[in-house]
């Protein structure tokens, strides 16, 4: 009889996408019955994953589904969140379990004292360490992201819905555009609007601005200041639809955020822009073995960076040098080979 395994990761988009190699390897190598516990806003990411047999989702408390979880009679719990809620699940179920190492001490030392004792291991490999005892090994196939067919966004629809020039409409219909992800959960992970305007003005190639409803005011400001080659889609589409636009783009420029990891799962060339967080935390774009399509853009050797392992609503120092000093030329050099069509 196959093992029945519960994986726990409550949030957020990128972190859940980064767990997908664990899900796939458990299913393919052990033929296990794999269940996943998360929060309701992220359920759709997992519902589309064919390696997940059942998804449980909570609004806020484990008690919402405690009886259902107990009835499942799991053999193992794989805790990829390692917080109070996941501890409550393990205490409730009282079965064999493994938790991943969050390296909080090493991150704190890096943030507080700039002592770099961080492991040279991607978070994906630290997630996979939790299932080694079960005989599971990484298969080298990278991340997974599955877009339901009904959520695929044909480019002809996008080009028709927008008030575009014929030249730009034709470029979009052919997928000859850059996806520029302007959002991120924390302000210190996001380029300021003036910097995004500078980047868009310098590119002069078809650009789709991607983000959520909260990003729309900034996107409108960017689009007004940069010209007709920039199309604002922020807040118009679901996560899966935005992922569809990422999948059809020729290249993606993004902050350290969920769509960055989705872009890596879809094997897209990425320019990742880093502010207060650093790649050394182990959450860079993760590709299959032998593939690296990421160009990292960051301001090195700032004495204040990293200032947090996650982010802030504003720069604690007030200057925001980690983003204000980003050199747009590094981004221009990374994208120029990809799109031959320039929009005047």
CATH class of the largest domain: Alpha Beta
Which regions contain 5 or more consecutive residues with pLDDT less than 50?
A: 340-344
Average pLDDT for all residues: 94
Distance between the termini: 63 Å
- Share of β-strand residues: 5-15%
Please report the total strand number as a whole number.
11
Number of helices: 15
Topology as a string of helices (H) and strands (E) = EHHEHEHEHEHHHHEHEHEHEHEEHH
Helix fraction? Answer: 25-40%
When the domains are counted, the total is 2
Task: Report the CATH architecture of the largest domain.
Answer: 3-Layer(aba) Sandwich
Shape: globular
CATH H level of the largest domain: which superfamily?
Glycogen Phosphorylase B
Strand order of the largest sheet: 8-7-6-9-10-11
Largest beta-sheet characterization: 6 strands, parallel
The CATH topology annotation of the largest domain reads as Rossmann fold
Cα radius of gyration in angstroms: 21 Å
Q: State the secondary-structure class.
A: alpha/beta
Q: What's this entry about, in short?
A:
With 344 residues, this protein is α/β, with parallel strands linked by helices. It is built from 15 helices and eleven strands.
What does this structure look like?
- It contains 15 helices and eleven strands.
- It has 344 residues and is an alpha/beta fold.
- It has two domains: 4-134, 3-Layer(aba) Sandwich (Rossmann fold), CATH 3.40.50.2000; 154-335, 3-Layer(aba) Sandwich (Rossmann fold).
- The strands form two sheets. It has a six-stranded parallel beta sheet with strand order 8-7-6-9-10-11, sandwiched between helices. Strands 3-2-1-4-5 form a five-stranded parallel beta sheet, with helices on both faces.
- Strand 4 (76-79), helix 5 (84-93) and strand 5 form a beta-alpha-beta unit.
- Helix 10 (193-203) runs parallel beside helix 15 (328-335).
- The N and C termini lie far apart (63 Å).
- Residues 340-344 have low confidence and may be disordered.
